[in-house]
Every structure is written in structure tokens, then in C-alpha cells.
Amino acid sequence: MMRVSKNKVKSLFLLILAIGYCHADDMNGANILRHLIASQGLIKNLEFKEEMGPLGWWSVKGKSPDMFRSESPKGDIALRIGDMGYYYSSSRKEIRLQKWPNSFFSSDDILHELIHGNIKLTGKEKIDSSLVYVLEGNLGQRSKYSHFQRGQIKAWINPEKWLILRAEITDEEQGFKETYGVDEIMLIDGKYWFPLEITKTTEFKKYPALGSTESIRKFKDVQINTEIDDEMFDFKLPGKTNISVSELMNSLPRHKSKQRKNSTIR
Q1: pLDDT digits over 174-229, tens only?
Q2: Cβ distance 67 to 73 under 8 Å?
Q3: pTM higher than the cut 0.70
Q4: How many CB atoms are closer than 10 A to CB 152?
């Protein structure tokens, strides 16, 4: 039987540790984005309730990619299919069609900006005793914020949970700054980290009259990867529903409000 000296065992052990350490610390912007994409890719379907201020808690169902349905206690419905948004008012019996807005209010929005931007790892910082990666760079041509010609993005990533904890989009020339911050998170089913509270702030430094705004999103009763039928995203309009098309929808011609009976939108 071959014998190995203690010194050789010790040297081999230290070499393994060194290799492991180098691998763990051998992180760059591209690798971090790959981890984020893989982590978010684990969540295919979502169900939760979201607080909408005086409107109460809305029931939300989401299906990857880009399919969401929110319904209020009073029967109002917000439906997203791809880049299109449909908003039904039960009191006015009216549905409004427009492009889904750029919210920068979800990790999906931020990840999109990071993927299509010119991003690099610039360092590490501590947030709530956790060491996080900091990514920074310029917005890309496919950015949802393309109207900011010199926009920049900065994001703080937790490498243990692979969550975007904070993010900022700024345009110094326009005096614009939008921030995203996760205030509370929860481990779902022992394997999915999900934010329970998110704060968004928007500032217009160049235009003080516009001031600044703050919005808070709160979630509860979160369920991940439950079965959701595609029919949830088929919306049957009640009779005599008014349909209005937003003038912001450049992809569609402008129309006056119309009435349709028993129509289905999907």
C-alpha cells in the first residue's frame, strides 16, 4: 500500500482549499448575471396577494414569461400578456388597452436592464451584515429606459440568495434617479427567496416642481410553481363593455372608444 507523508497530505489539502477559494472568488459581471438568470428561472408560476393602498389586497397570478393577472376584491382586473396591458374597470364597465409600463419595480425589470447593459462588477459592499456584489454600467440600446441617452444602472446582488437587494437608474444630464430596494424577504418552500416588501423612489432633480415620489409594494400568501391554467389569462368581456386604446400605443392606430359584446381578450 502506498504511503503518503503528512506534509504531502497537508500540501494537497492547502492546494484544494486554494483552488476552491479562487473558484469561489473568481466572479465577474457575466457570471453574476448567469446566477441571477438561473435563480429566477426556477420560478415558473406565481400566486400571491398584493396590497394596493385603499384598493385593498389584489389576487395575482403570474406565469413565465410575462403573463400576469391581478384582480381586486371589487372585480377590477389588470391583465398583462407580453408587452400589452389590459385594465378592466368593473364600475365603469370599461377596458383600457395600452403598452405595459416600464416600472423598474420588479427584479425582472432590473435583470432585463442588467442583461442588455454594459455591466461590470465594481466591488463588494455590506447590506444588513451580508456581503453583496455591486454591478455598475451604462444602459444598453435595448433598455426600457432608452429615452435616457446617458443612463446608468447600479445593482447590489446577494450571492447567497441570488436576490437583487437594491438598484438605481440615474441620468445626471436629465436629473433623474429611480431606486429599488427590498425591505423584507421570505424563504418559500425552503428553497425560493421572495421579497415581501419593496420600496421605489423617483426623483427629478432638474425639475424640482415634479418633486419626488415613493411607492411601496407589499406581498403575502405567496405560492410558487403551483399549477395555473392558461385560461386564467383569457379575459371574457361582459356585454356592452367600452374599449379604449391608449394614444401612447404607437404600434396601434388611434381609435375612439368602441362597444363590444361578449368578446374575449388573450
Answers
A1: 788 999 999 999 999 999 999 999 999 998 887 777 778 899 999 999 999 999 99
A2: no
A3: yes
A4: 16
